[in-house]
Every structure is written in C-alpha cells, then in structure tokens.
Specification:
about 110 residues; alpha/beta; 3-stranded parallel beta sheet; two-stranded parallel sheet; about 30% helix; globular
C-alpha cells in the first residue's frame, strides 16, 4: 500500500513502472492526492487500485490487513528529509518498502 502525496517528489510513477514488470501478481493499493493523481489513477489495473485521499482513521480501518507500506521518494531529492508517512506506517505496524535514492540517509534507515 501507499498512502500520501502523489506528487513528483514522491516518485510513485517510477515505482509503478518497476512494479508492472514483476512476474508475480502482487497487488498495490494507493490512497492519496496530488499533482500526479490523475496519471497514477490512469494506471489502475487488476493489480493496482487507486483511491483518493481519505482520513487517517479511515485509512487505518481500510488497510489494517495489508502488511507492507511503500515509502517512495525521487532519487533527485538532494536535501535530507524523512517522510512523515514513515512514522504513520510504523505506528500501523507495517513492513516498510523503501524506494528512493540509495545514498539518502532515509534509505539507510530502511
């Protein structure tokens, strides 16, 4: 699952490119809004479900059965930052999947 901003810095479209190449039939559920929402929603398929932004409480309820959560950042991000969504995911007891610049300090955390 991925929940949060669907903008250029989050690089979700690049992750979807890689995700689509998988021979295994994984499922990805996305919740969010942002400048890339429409183009990401256009990629919806049997393996990718795209939903608009929902409240944190509703997100907890709808995703409590999903074990993994994606933290995605563009490799072009040069300033060090730590996505706040990471802490939400940890609070939800999710296993984190990090997709970002391998040289970033947040990537070293994952």
């Amino acid at each position: 699952m991925y929940a949060g901003n669907l903008g250029t810095p989050q690089n979700v479209e690049s992750f979807l490119d890689l995700f689509s190449l998988s021979e295994k039939q994984y499922k990805l559920t996305i919740y969010g809004s942002g400048s890339q929402f429409e183009s990401i929603a256009n990629r919806e398929s049997v393996n990718i479900t795209v939903n608009s932004f929902i409240s944190r409480d509703e997100l907890l309820q709808k995703t409590n059965h999903i074990p993994f959560a994606l933290v995605s950042l563009s490799p072009k991000i040069t300033i060090e930052g730590f996505p706040g969504k990471t802490f939400d995911y940890l609070k939800m007891n999710k296993i984190l999947i990090g997709y970002s610049n391998p040289e970033s300090s947040s990537c070293k955390f994952y």
